[in-house]
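Q: We require from you a single protein entry containing the residue sequence and its fold in token form, and nothing else.
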Amino acid sequence: MGPDGGGREGPLEDPTTFPPAVREAAGSDVAWERLRGFAAMLAAEGETRGLIGPREMPRLWSRHIVNSMALNAFVADGARVADVGTGAGFPGVVLAITRPDTRLTLVESMERRCEWLEDVRLHLGLENVRVINARAEEFHGRGQFAVVTARAVAALDKLARWTLPLVEPGGRLLALKGARAGEEFDAAESVFRSLGARTGAVHAVSSPLDGSTTYVVEIVKWS
């Protein structure tokens, strides 16, 4: 039990104290205010709706929102993007907010999480978002995308089997990973090749909030 008498462990991060680089990374004042609105929704409902645990809530910005923003530099202007296993909205909702030029399809298998994502879409006015209640495998053959993203879904070998069929020729899979990203990448290379990937890399991205490192695994499909 946290110090406030509830399940939350510690105070929430205060975005008004963040370095200017965090707000700049959002891309615009509109995007920044939408990020704050998204964070406020999660702070109010995230625990009760089973979207984010009490231990994660005090790190909502640093571990989840800013972490998700690491993908921004790897997505081309105007790209059609599918985010697989969106859950509470990471990274799909954050990408939709900070890259309003993109078109996001949020693929989520749990109905209650899809209901949450629809609430977020409507409340924040995200016209570049649609929500699909399906597993990634069930979405095979229903469309392909320039970019497919995923965060905390599965190990790369399994994730590749679920997601690379959704990537159009010449497109890419972008997976947010932790410190073992390189090991996962090496272990999954044969799977990537068997699914039509031609190249890949692991990129280290520094957080504008606290300098921590996020790893973006990029897998490019044959054109």
Remarks:
- DSSP finds seven helices and seven strands in the chain.
- The first helix runs from residue 20 to 26.
